[in-house]
Amino acid sequence: MTAALLALAGGLMVAVLILLWRWRTSHLKQHDALQAREEHLTVALWGSGEQFWDFDLARRELHLLHADESGSELGLAVTTRQASLPLVHPHDRASLRRRLRAHLRGHEPLFTTEHRVDPDGDGNWVWIRIHGRTVERDHRGRPRRLAGTARDTTANRHADAERRIASEVLRSMSEAVAVLDRELHFVAVNPAFSQITGYSDVEALGRPFAMLDSDGEGRGGSLSRDPNRQHWQGNVWMTRRDGEEILCHVKHNGIPDAGGEVNFHVVVLSDITEQKRAEQELRYLANYDALTSLPNRSLLSERLARAIVRARREGGHVAVLFLDLDRFKDVNDSLGHATGDRVLRAAAERVQHAVGPQHTVARLGGDEFTVVLEGLATPGEAEDVARRVIESFSLPLVLDEHHEITVSPSIGISLFPDHAQVPTELLKHADTAMYQAKAAGRRTWEVYSASMDEATRRRATLAGLLRRVVERQELTLAYQPRYSLHEGRVVGAEALLRWNNPEFGSIPPDHFIPLAEDTGLIMEIGEWVLKEACTTLRQWHEAGIEGMRMSVNVSPVQLMRGDLAATLARILAETGVASGQLELELTESAIMANVGRSASVLHACRVLGVGVAVDDFGTGYSSLAYLKRLPLTTLKIDQEFVGDLTRDPDDEAITSTVIAMGHSLQLTVVAEGVETAGQLQFLRDHGCDEVQGHYIAAAMDRDACLAFLSRPAAVPA
Question: Model-level pTM?
């Protein structure tokens, strides 16, 4: 019995030992596996360069987990710390809130954003990319905790920006740029290379640079003779693809590797053929202006350069006065160019008499004159001369026994050595100061200062170009269709003014229209727009497009000056367009600037049968009481409110209210800037009459718009 019990106890002991051994073995394996997973997580976290984060929405607590190099076996350690929410850049806050709200509401499965933060609160903004999702919800299913990863992307963004800038600079350069390999074969070229040489990139790549040689003797092959020469520039005759020879200024730079061996070459080509031809022709030009007998630009530059040399040697001052006759265009337009030429001759004599024979007076062209004053003891003497010149124009210019005319100059002054050291800079600064004098009210002078920056010079240049913008045929109209929601068809179009200048390219209307208004040129431009729009409407009618209305924007200057109703009557008669097909668009601010005058002019226009629309309604300061006094036919809702329809309840409320108010005043309501089907449906549901925007059609030229109107199903219902 005792032996049996001992045997049973021994067996139990063995079983317990076996169980303990198995448990320990399993525990060690789990510990090893857990440790391995922790090591893998640490390595992955450190290697990815990302930071794990955990955010408690209820407590607004942020916990950060990241790997650092330390003294552990792997040389890495994972640390966790609680941190405060970093400051988000003001420009990124709205986007961040929108993305977070979309995720929390279940619209997006992941919370993803890239924005700027100031982690240390020292004004040093960095870009971070966030990926995360909801990891815990409360008993009602609302998000409670978010977790994810964060990564600093500042360096990547800077690198991408630099690459884009470099690529865009290369693409937009007017000079031809080519990259050659060590055998001087083309590796890459920019668009200007194709424009200058006639070879496309496909035709050039892989071919030798010597293909541009103007003959078989390698006249353009200076690189071939010394391929390891790292820097060289000069003028070389080359041959285009079509066989035409051109003179190019060539700049060559070799790109050495670490061992100093040149493996690539960068060649920059500038076509200077026309420049050299122009220089040769200029040698034969006379040094004096044929109309006024004054020195021309060429002789002026020579005399100004000599004056600067003498002033530098003697320690004196030189002043340049740039004169422009105020509103000279009005003289040409009203009295004719022959009278304008006589005015220029009389003005030249007046200026020369005022400054004295010891100083140079030159005519640069048009109504622009330049005076070079030498031997000035003080810079203030230049202003004394400018005052005498302006006073000399106080009496009318006598053209003949029966004609006198009063004109005045605006003068800009620049000084050597105060403002510039070279003639071109002095002339440029004086020109800039002259435009400042015009902006200050004309018939005065301004001395150049550094505050007259590039924006001012550009504005002045554009103002000068505007003088002949109609004559040079640089203006065009684009037409954006207007779609009737009730009739289910396009019923009209808005004429939009565009200016394309050979030098500046496409100039935005908000840049040049204020200039045109300031200079009074808007009267001529506005009349051109009205006539061009009516001509287009007549052509559409002749092409079979019936029942169309044309909307034309009118400037406040046109409304307050001149006889707008008479101009409309004349243009309608000349083009044969029915008055009911034309609608004038004016902004709230334009109408409210002088309500009494505006109402009188607009009533005269309505008598003709022309419609009147308030453009951009809701963005100005109009009074509803004044709206009742004005003969309006149309109310246009600004795209600022339309753009957030279906997303912003406030804009929806404003838009629906404006529609109801417009209908209560018996006005046609038009919504601008319609971009989506949702916006269109909202406007349709709330009774809006007409819409325009890119969802209907973008603005297009006359022929393209005619083709659009001719299509049977041009707009989705």
Answer: 0.43
